[in-house]
Amino acid sequence: MDTPVKNQLSPATPFSSKFEDSPVFNFISNLSPIEPVKTRLNDHTFNSVNFSSPPSLFASPQISSFSETRFAIRRHHFSDPTKPDSSRSENENNTSEGVSVAVQPSNLRTEQLGYISPGSSAREVIDEPLTDNLELAIELPSSFKYDSGSPSSSVLPCDAINTDSVSDTTNTQAQLVQSVTVNSKERHILFEREKYLRRINRVEQNNEAARHDWEKKISDTDNLFNFDSPVTGEQPEGPDPRTVDTGSMSFISDVLEDDLNKFERPESTDPVGSCEHYVMGEPCKESKGTGDMKETDQTPAVLSSTLMDKLVVNDSNDMVDDKRRKGIQSSCKPRPQLHRTIRRRCLDFERAGSHEKKSSCECSGSSAVAIQSNSKVASVQNKFVHSMGGSFRSSSKLPGVGLHLNSLATPTEGKVVDNESWASESQRISKRVSIRSCDSLIPRETSHDKFSPKRSLERDLVPYDNEGQAIEEAHQTSTYVDEEFDSSSPQNKRRKSEHVVENLACKRCNCKRSKCLKLYCECFAAGLYCVGSCSCIDCLNNPIHENTVLETRRQIESRNPLAFAPKVIKSTDAVAEFGDETNKTPASARHKRGCNCRKSSCLKKYCECFQGGVGCSVSCRCIGCKNTFGRKDGECLSGAEETEFKESKVETLGEKNATDVETVGEPDLLKTPSEIGRPPYQQPVTLRGKPSPSPQLFNRQNPEKSKVLCGQLKFETRFEVIPEDEALEKMESISQETSGLKSGSPDSKWVSPPHGHGESGSSLNCWRGGRKLILRSIPPFPNFNPPSHH
DNA sequence: GAGTTTGAAACT
DNA sequence: CAGTTTCAAACTC
User: Fold this and answer.
1) Is the pTM higher than 0.85?
2) What secondary structure letter does DSSP report for A241?
């Protein structure tokens, strides 16, 4: 799984063969930067690769941060191949962004090739096409054989060719025109040139400054590749790749520096400024020692930025936000190199942002946040990694299992994150990802295992039944944001997913006294690092204080293993195991612990159930519940309240459903607990806002509430929701891990029924049984599929 | 933007 | 476990 292409492609594969068919020559002949984009269609090779790995939701903590970091980097590279998709899609969709489009592909390629590709970036547009072609190198390790084991080397030759002699290119063109057989000669020529470049590069190695700097990076990179990276095979095939790479890198770095010097002078203007939001957290990481990742990431950014400078006119430069510098940034002292790096990143980000969508992202924030995900979350990881490298690039994409990213969502913008939308949609995610996305979530792969944001994320990831659902949900989540778009078109779906990502990325806190190390802090609670956009004070929830964060998380989880678990649990089961009505009770989604509202009537976002877009349940201890997503059973309403509740439902549902609501939905609601027998969960609303396909399985009011939810999902944010079975699994594992803490743990609120009265014997037993039993007592909620509507 | 309200989280 | 305090988001003006 981890070694997708490596094994598939024989190192012995003739270099020539690769390029024979490759569009490289075509590219050279055409010298058109745009052309490569077309060829890019082949880039999907990695898309099919399944990166998912067993999710140890509550696995033991302490995975080495370094390894994760590297892993992240690896992912970054690895995921890159998918970028072409997005870029391509962007091209398809966003013709207006022509220039940026041209540039982006190169970036993507660069990333794919790994870090080396910076050289390509230095080369400007012309190189990109080559890079694209070389992109095949990823798929074709053989190419690296000639590259001396370094992707960069592959890039270099291209540069050399383009740079050194245009005439050669012309000749190549002619040859291509003549016949295919000539290709071998050309390849040979290329190879020779490549060698030549290497020599030059080695000479360049004498440049200590550049060399030293890049060497570190390279060494890190090498380590990364060696470390379990699928890409590994691609690289080291060649002799002493490192040496060569180093030289290449130094050479490239020099070139880049020159270019940057030329173009970055006006840094005070846009590029830099715009970058800042993205860069925010990065410096910190470096200072902190997570430099591996940072530096590695930066490379692509560098390339992209360089290209940006040259080719792209920055259009989104007004994003400078001082707040972003807050916290992490403040502590970081940008070194020249670093600064440059940052700038590059910014540029890269800007590029992504600008051409992806000039989102006027309010997100003042920047970056650095971190969620860490594990293997299972591979796709997410990739995305995150990408974001690290330069923002949430829509480019990042991994096919795959749709996952549900719970904790990432912002309360205000949609709690539910559809990972699948990320995975499948992310491929299509386009430029619309606003800079805002960088605000927050950027998954850092650094490590914290169990307590790490990564884990949180991982935990929160839940597979979706199908992409369509995911998309739909994603759409629902972001509908209010995205209403301008027509949901029908693919492009729009893409945009939807973008919004989802956006939403995910936008957690911000405003903590003043908790130092963002308590669950009060939304960022922390979501397993994220605070970012520059946060308004927190004395924030310790950042990579710099990683240890503190981890320790705190550990403590919190020791008290409450589910503290960082999704707050809303969704049931994916379509059929109830048991025949009793209790089990039939719809519980498509519910708050894991229930709310305790007293004054808000569960009609405001103070109520976590309401905020999460789910109805209240037996778990809730709320008073006067009027949750329009579904009141908890047994909630007695006064006449006025009843009327009010009906009205609210009617309003939500609209006129067409009003009648049904009153006639069908109300009866149970009006019953007292004793009358109803207090079904465990009554949450009638499905996450997807779809009515139950089979009325029998549901409470009478369910369908209506589902409709209500449908209506409200567009406007209300939801908590992360995960399939019930998934949640059950998690909880079971937790329970096992933390056996003995049941009574005393904060979970007790969740575990034990808040209301002792009216519990049925079966449910009571369930409650006594602990989490596992409790969950079982929750009747699985039918899986709402679109067809049900039809 | 400041102040208030609210309920979760944390503490005792 | 219950009561209280702390806290920050949500809300109101």
Assistant:
1) no
2) H
Question: Per the structure block, which two tokens stand in for A431?
Answer: 């430029």
Q: Is the CB of A554 under 7 A from strand B?
A: no
User: CB–CB of A357/A433 below 8 Å?
Assistant: yes
Mean pLDDT over residues A176-181, rounded?
A: 43
Q: What pLDDT does A25 receive?
A: 54
The dihedrals phi and psi of A787, each to the nearest 5 degrees, come to -55, -30
| Measured distance CA(A477)–CA(A9) in Å, rounded | 41
* Strand C contacted by A388 CB (< 7 A): no
Tell me if A705 sits within 8 A of A681, measured CB to CB: no
Asked if strand B comes closer than 7 Å to A624 Cβ, the answer is: no
Report the distance from CA of residue A545 to the C1' of nucleotide B9 in Å, as an integer.
22
CA dist A695 and A230 (Å) reads 48
Distance A50 CA to B3 C1' (A): 52
pLDDT digits (tens, 9 = 90+) for A84-99: 343 334 343 443 333 3
The letter for the amino acid at A499 is H
Is strand B in 7 Å reach of the CB of A518? Answer: yes
Dihedral angle sign, alpha carbons of residues A614, A617, A623, A624? positive
Distance of C1' in C6 from CA in A511, Å:
12
Instruction: Please give the structure tokens belonging to residue A206.
Output: 């004498």
Q: Is A334 exposed, middle or buried (0-12, 13-18, 19+ CB in 10 A)?
A: middle
Measuring alpha carbon to C1', the residue closest to nucleotide B10 is: A518
The pLDDT tens digits of the residues spanning A479-538 come to 333 333 333 444 444 444 444 444 444 567 888 888 898 888 888 888 888 888 788 888
In the numeric block, the tokens 């597979």 are attached to A463
A744 CA to B12 C1', in Å?
Answer: 15
Q: Which of A388, A368, A413, A345 is nearest to A516 (CA)?
A: A368
Q: Which residues contact A58 (CB under 8 A, 6 or more apart)?
A: A450, A455, A459, A561, A730, A733, A734, A737
DSSP assignment, residue A590?
A: E
Shortest-distance nucleotide from A563 CA to C1': B9
- CA–CA dist A436, A280 (Å, integer): 12
A737 CA vs C6 C1’ separation (Å): 30
What the block records as the tokens of A698 is 């549901």
pLDDT band at A23 (very low <50, low <70, confident <90, very high): low
Distances (CA, A) of A462 to A467, A606, A722, A731: 12, 26, 6, 14
Q: Which two tokens stand for residue A573?
A: 């089961």
Judge whether residue A520 contacts strand B, using its CB and a 7 Å cut-off: yes
Kindly calculate the radius of gyration of chain A based on its CA atoms and give it in whole angstroms: 27
Tell me if residue A404 falls in helix, strand or coil. strand
Asked if A12 and A237 count as a contact pair (C-beta separation under 8 A), the reply is: no
Q: What is each CA distance from A503 to A163, A330, A361, A717, in whole angstroms?
A: 43, 26, 11, 10
How do strand A568-570 and strand A721-722 relate by DSSP bridges? parallel
Q: Is nucleic acid strand C under 7 Å from A219's C-beta?
A: no
Yes or no: say if A571 and A780 are a contact pair by the CB < 8 Å rule: yes
* Whether the Cβ atoms of residue A478 and residue A505 lie closer than 8 Å to each other: no
Nucleotides on strand C with an atom closer than 7 A to protein CB? 1, 6-11
